[in-house]
Amino acid sequence: MLKIGHRGAKAYALENTFSSFRKAIEMGVDMIELDVRITRDKYPVVFHDVLLRRMTKQFGLIKNQTLAEVKQLKIKHIETIPTLAEVLEVLRGRVGLNIELKARGSAQVVVQTLRDYKMDLSRVMVSSNHPGELRIVKELEPRITTALIFRSTNAFNIWLVFDFLAIVFLPITKYYISWVVRHARADYLNINYHLLSREKVALFKRHGIKICAWTVNNPKTIEYLKDLGIDGIITNYPDRL
Q1: Is 59 inside a domain boundary?
Q2: Which of 47, 132, 133, 149 could form a disulfide with 107 if both were Cys (CB 3.0 to 4.6 A apart)?
Q3: Residues annotated as part of the active site
């Protein structure tokens, strides 16, 4: 089972920073999950939110900033926002990476960055709640493992309507989710652990879908999910896995 640190070791250090990534490695993770957004001048940077405010106390959208402007910002007045290139340079060969594409239009630049840094693609997972981005990744680099995230809340579109209906009508949920994963040409389903059950896990596995659960912090829940036989757990507390 993959041990995946959420934004590094979010419970112990500032999310999506080198401090958090180092802490996760110290705690023995197999992979670090990190978020990527694209700057106005098309550089991939490691940052979760659409807005700058929560992490930097500045106003604005990160997609409207140039890389030079992003590099002037500090996360909680402490650390700079890393670029994906910097992360690959420092972490390459030390740990697997689960790179979440937060926005449309980011697949091509992320794949090119992976190529530029000659990454071992067997240690890379690219995840997103945008199926089209994952299909682009597979078209560009079939060797990259992809994961459909079901469903983080930054995809405000018609898919949310279908998600809502699928969850309300619980008997069809598992079939709908399986269809969405196949539609995205994804290898993994990265799913909120509340939506998992023994029956759903068995169905997904019959369809050849590997499963990672997020974001799991409670030790009892971790043990329950391990017992279900899922393939990975994403947590803020890597030392609990």
Answers
A1: no
A2: 133
A3: 6, 48
